[in-house]
Amino acid sequence: MKAGEVHRMSNRSLIxxxxxxxxxxxWFVQASCKGRTQEGTAERPxxxxxxxxxxxxxxxxxxxxxxxxxxxxxxxxxAHNPVDWFPWGEEALCKARDEDKPIFLSIGYSTCxxxxxxxxxxxxxxxxxxxxxxxxxxxxxxxxxxxxxxxLYMTAVQAITGRGGxxxxxxxxxxxxxxxxxxxxxxxxxxxxxxxxxxxxxxxxFYVEKKEExxxxxxISRRNSVE
Length: 227
Hints:
Layout lengths: L2 H35 L20 H4 L11 H5 L8 E2 L2 H10 L3 E6 L4 H11 L2 H10 L1 E6 L4 H15 L6 E5 L5 E5 L13 H14 L1 H5 L12
Parallel strand pairs: 1-3, 2-3
Antiparallel strand pairs: 2-4, 4-5
Helix pairs in contact: 1-4, 1-7, 6-8
């Protein structure tokens, strides 16, 4: 067996293990969400659609989001963004499932230059944050804390776009299946890239209009109108 073949087998094995780990976590979250909805005798009230100007959370009123409770320097750097960031965990994943919202997953690390650029251009922008909070469940991950998630979704981004890097920007179904992804997106369209606002708008529309297709494994291709 050649060295290259061993390397390819090793990569496939790592991807398979990562997929199995994430699928297992999904199973636990599904069970947890189901158990939570069955607690007590009262039915869970339906979640109303978010209205513009009515998306402020208690964390935002306090001047920070949920990342303020994290230990990662990278996550703490985003703790005062107007984006209502969640760390990866049960709360965020259950919210996505309960409200049937797609997830915006942003993965980076503390010394990543373009991570800081995208934060300044987009994640500190009140208008962009309001749209992101209304239409998605935004999750921020430090790749140094969760290399398993980084490896798994980087493989997906590379398969969808043909390239990868950080910050990694991935749109997931509530079942954690990636249907579009990329890396850095500017606040204004340039160099063949859409603005992040335009991208979010089109992805949100795509998810609503083709939800069943997306959930059955459909992806926005590189030639789709999102570009």
